Amino acid sequence: xxxxxxxxxxxxxxxxxxxxxxxxxxxxxxxxxxxxxxxxxxxxxxxxxxxxxxxxxxxxxxxxxxxxxxxxxxxxxxxxxxxxxxxxxxx
Length: 91
Hints:
The chain is mostly helical. The chain contains four helices and no strands. It is elongated, with a radius of gyration of 18 Å.
């Protein structure tokens, strides 16, 4: 909200997205998502990362082409935000 308000004050005549483009900034949401993706990629690719042991086991079932997840997830976690990140991992 603060960034949005600041963009409205600095660029009162344009939309929020246009103001971000004019200022050369990303939205806070995009920045957070980028940092989250980078952190998760670091955890997945670095076996020595302190959180690497917390990852679920890899999914080696290549037969189900509709849901090719990199990790096995349990029933309780199928709709959690973490699962959404795990299913989008490209390693």
